[in-house]
Amino acid sequence: MPDPARSEDPAARDYPVLRKWYFCANEGALRGDNFKLLRAAIQSCLRHTDLQPHCLYVGGKAPALRVMRDLGVTVIRHAPSLEPWLRPAYGPDYETFAGHWLRIDIPRIETEDDHVLYTDIDVLFRPLPALIDGPELLAVAPERWRTRAEPFNSGVMLMHLPGLRAVDDAFRAAIRARLQGDFTWPTHDQASFNAFFRGRTDPLPLSMNWKPYWGRNDAAHIVHFHGPKPRMAAKLAAGEARGLDAGQARLHGLAPAAYRHYGALFRAELREPAGQRPARSTRIRPRSEVPPPGAADRLATSVGARRAWAGDIARAVLGRLRETRPQRGS
User: Model pTM?
Assistant: First the structure.
């Protein structure tokens, strides 16, 4: 299927505008390196898009709340509606992980718009596309391998709220059953999203959830630091691998040059205030109006998938070779 994020369809002016970006946070997200990630996400959103940032927050008073409000973020204090089941499932770790489950409640909280964009806090926004196809329920991108639609990554989701409200009761029932059964983490709510929506999602362009370990992509619209965050990536680039997670180091080894590039973008977003907001909008083409792919589209999709597969395999091989080199500090 052609990437709708690259479409310049003149009819896009008649489609509804994507107006709101939602993210979720607890107290831990408003401290230290986590808040640096969040602030870079907010400032990049303000610099490169016209989206209105909305934060669902669970926790107590924190100086960062004022910082966010001063930046123009709408802060909505909200406890997870599934708290009665989450507390016994997590036990003493509930406060640490409660923020993960706030996004379940977005379809209940947002009552003005049919579509919203959700992301985790570890993203950087770049200019968004003029047009993107709306989903029936969720539009999502792959987790690790670009050519594998499942499992999907729930760190960036285009949400169709009327559709999600229609399945809300069933989704919550499935989550409650999981929490009351053999519940484990760190998969948290992403495992529930994948289990319930398996085979029911629509594709989100890879450029809307681009991972640094896929390599540098100057056409990316949202960069997602899935894996090593900028501070860890800088340590790994300096050869300071001692005590760091081996899986994170392996992901960094897939594309160290891309991590350097995106790390520099991250630091630039932190340094520079957003300034005047751009006058550009992203419009949502309803799923019912998305044309079926033609022969040329199917060929382009097939060729693109083969190139992505070859690129991912090549990076994996090079990453393994880098692992065999001696590291400073190891």
Answer: 0.86
